[in-house]
Amino acid sequence: MIARRKATKSLDYPLMLSVVVLVIFGIMMIFSATFTWKTSTTFVLKQVAFAVVGFGAMAFMSLIDQHILRRWALPIMGICVVALVGVLFMGGGGTSSWVSGASVQPTEFVKLGFIIYMAAWLAPQGGRIRDITYGLIPFAVLLGVVCGLIVLEPDVGAAVLIAGTALAMFFIAGADIKQLLFSILLGAAVLYILVSALPYAGDRVRVFIDPSSDPLRTGYQIQRILTALRSGGMFGRGLGNGEFKQMLPLPHTDAIFPVIGEELGMVGCLVVLGVYGLIVWRGMKISINAPDVFSSLLAAGVSCWIALQALVHIAGNTAALPYTGVTLPFVSYGGSSLIMTLAGAGVLLGVSRVKVDKQVAASTTFAFGRRNRRTRVSRTGRRRGMEAHRRR
Asked: What's the structural domain count of the chain?
């Protein structure tokens, strides 16, 4: 039995307010990062336009019924695969993850589309997810195809994000811990092979281990990023007063966190981290209180996506992980990234609006690796019936 909408609650205002604050803050930081550029106004106006479209996408996704997303999950996944294949032939601008002639990154659309499909695929599995033939093998094949296409672009950072989000959803859906560990080990082995095969990925790992190994290129960039962060101290130089930001690689996108650190200091960085923590906490709470298994997995997937992307960006810009060039959600410049993360926030808001009977929700909600109650009860009943039949 699937829980239907009984009534609508008010939106999750803490989540919505946190997202709006980050978007406005991002526009402000983009202006500060590009203040000395002749095209500064152009970047800011474009980001404002992207934000308007993104808020429209957030409003639309917050109003759409999750069951519609579930029915359209397969066509959405098909469009994502076609886009990934097509971009290999139409790529431009130095990396094929950008569609030639337009600032469009299909990988950003795939992040949300893949989460919708994964939630739709995992939701009806129930206890079968622990069976290797129904769980691990199809999961590995599906994830391998999507991530393989993304790596060919090449965009290892996006592939790692999608793989991490999928693994989290797989575990939340009830996968066995052994399957999860095997998936992580297999993923680590594949990542090692990719790093060895792709020169730019190998260079970034070597620089991460030894920053002095490439002092004129990637190593120099990391040193400038760390210098900018250190120069901000506790309270920063003040908004717009950053000096090292002019030497950062792509300070309005891939390296926007060091700009925040230089101008707003450690306090500003911690506040930003706190806002992301609030968004992820509200998202996970929405997942726990979701009306059905699909909605629960959908909300958990979006929350993990936002958390992992923010973590990878910040860790890469603090030398805690190899530098990947992943954008900071809601803050970095970029139309595709901003619009799709806002659409993801709209999905969370849509799930939060649903109100169902507690009795129905208790029998359908499935979150954080626990099997749902109905599955346990039905299996117990079948086992007792078989034992009684044998006694006869």
From this structure: 1
Q: Which two tokens stand for residue 355?
A: 């109100």
Query: What is the residue-wise DSSP string for 122-141?
Result: HTTTGGGGGSTTTTHHHHHH
Question: What is Dmax (Cα atoms) for the chain?
Answer: 87
Could you tell me if residue 108 is inside a domain?
A: yes
Cβ(26)–Cβ(259) under 8 Å?
no
What value does the CA radius of gyration of the chain take, rounded to a whole number of Å?
Answer: 22
Question: Has residue 110 been placed in a domain?
Answer: yes
Structural domain of residue 70, as residue ranges? 11-391
- The per-residue pLDDT for range 123-176, each reduced to its tens digit, is 988 778 888 877 788 888 888 888 888 888 777 888 889 999 999 999 898 887
Return the closest-CA partner of residue 170 out of 162, 180, 160, 178: 180
pTM of the predicted model, to two decimals?
0.84
Please give the structure tokens belonging to residue 148.
Answer: 């393989």
Q: Are 265 and 55 in contact (CB under 8 A)?
A: no
- Count CA within 13 A, CB hemisphere, residue 322: 18
pLDDT tier for residue 77 given thresholds of 50, 70 and 90? very high
- Residue 363 burial (C-beta neighbours within 10 Å; 0-12, 13-18, 19+): middle
Separation between Cα atoms, residue 273 and residue 75, nearest integer Å: 36
Mean of pLDDT values over 19-35: 95
Contact 363, 376 (CB under 8 A): no
Cα separation, 197 vs 199, in Å, equals: 6
- Please, is 205 exposed, middle or buried when counting C-beta atoms within 10 Å of its C-beta (0-12, 13-18, 19+)? middle
Could you tell me if 300 and 172 are in contact, meaning their C-beta atoms sit under 8 angstroms apart?
yes
Position 6 in a domain: no
Q: Is 3 domain-assigned? A: no
Distance CA(370)–CA(300), nearest Å, equals 14
Residues 6 or more apart whose CB falls under 8 angstroms from that of 95 comprise 153, 154, 155
| 166-182 pLDDT, tens digit each | 999 998 988 878 877 88
